Structures are given as structure tokens and as C-alpha cells.
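pasting input
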Amino acid sequence: METDTLNISELGRLEIIEIYDYYDQPILFACKNAAGHLHLVVAADEDEQHETWLYVRVSAERLNLIRSGTIDLHDAFADSENGHLLQVKFSYNNPTLPQIEHLKSNQVPEDMLPTPGERLDLETEMPPVLSKPEPMSKNNQDVLPSEIRSTL
Amino acid sequence: MEWPHFYPENCPPTEAKPASGKIYRLVRNDPAQVEDFRTFFEENSRWFQNKPTTTVCKGCGISVYTDLQDIKRLKDRYKRKFGKHKIAEGELDAKFGMIQNTPSKEESHHTWWVPIRAEPWAVFNVIGESKEQ
């Protein structure tokens, strides 16, 4: 079956399950990996050589709060559930090998995040793929590499 | 109307209408250049491998807005990504292809399919900062 998928080495094969904002391409969307983990993704930066994206892991419950606008788009990334997010930087010359960096949510430059106060306002039901939430580990530490887990 | 060879079948979709009226697009250059109108498909064709036809077709179009306030909100929402872009305004007619309302976060988002030999950069002008405010 054809699906919208992405491949990020640390997260595995990601299926785009819902697109919230689009400009020439999806620029804000939710995706799910094979383990059932959900991520919210935003296009954060671009220049002549690179395109940078932020991936934050979210529980289904939190994604629902983001979808409804209870949590704004800025805090969805800046105040993440596990305190971390992934910065994924693609080079136009070598897009299959992105540079991946683990960042603390509160260390991301403000202008890379959606403007505070910007919200989704979706009254529609969650897509079926989101309606059966995957349980999240207590601190979501299972998605973090050992060097970061050891600092928590 | 002749479309680029890389368009999939049934693209533009039957729901699209002949282009017309005033629209807005973010561009890097002033005056607008041909590269300001390149599609995501042209820039990242590998990304579309095994993607649904509807996704490929949308990627063969470019994003525009019919409401100036909507594109200002987009530019403001993603400051680092779009902060250096400028808003350009263009007046379209049917020779510039087909357009379809494809609401995104803002309702006036449209997808525009540009035929071969059309030169959209020639009819777009960057609007002044005073108008952007």
C-alpha cells in the first residue's frame, strides 16, 4: 500500500498521518513510526545548503490537546513531554544522510519554533490511527540515546 | 494546455479551475526569478517514490494564497524558515494554468499547476514592506 512515509534513522520508517500546515510541501505534520510512537514535526529553518526540521515525540493524548488548540504550537515543541526533541538537518547535496542532533526543548532558538499563541483548531475527530493511543514510557526515555538518558 | 512531463496522470485534478485573479506567493528574490516557482517535486523527486498519486500531484503544484493576510500569518508563524522571504503579488488568467483551493492552516491556501512555457515570475511583483505590515 502506498503511504506518505519518511525515513529518519533514529526513528525508523515514519508514516505521515495528518498534515496541519502545507506550503509547497508538508511543513507541520504528525507521523507515526513502526513502534507506534507519534511525533509532531515542523519545518524550522532553511538556507542555501540545508533544510532543518524539529521532531518532538508526543503521546496521543498530548497530540489531541495540540490538535484542539489547548496546547499552542510553540509549546508543543518548547515544552515537550520528555524535555527533548530531535533536530534533523538535511543537506540538499546529500538528503539521504541528515545530521541528527538531540536538543533540550528549552534550548531551541525561539525563531525556529512556531510563534507563541499560534494554535490548531481542529474540531474533527482524531484520525483512526490516533484513536488508540500507544502507551508512553514514564519519561519517554526509551527514544533517547544512552548518553542523554544518563543525564536525566 | 501542455503540462510538464513529470506530472502524473489526472494531474491537475478535475476539481482544479482555470487560474484567475490576484494571488500571493513567498519568494526569495526581488524581482522574482524562475527558481521562486520551482515545485517541491522538481527539487525533491526522490521523496515522491512510492507516494500516492494525489501526493505527487500536489507536489507538482506550487502553494499560493488568495488572501494577503493569510500569507502574512504564514510568514510570521515560521520566522526562521520564511523570515527572509518576501511576499509577491501576481494577477493570473487562464493561460497560467489551473488552480485549486486546498485549505491548509489558512483557508485561502491554493495549489497552482503551471503549464509549460508560462512564465509566472514575469507577472509577480514583490510588495513593499509597508503593504506587508
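fyi Residues 68-77 of chain B form the longest helix (10 residues).
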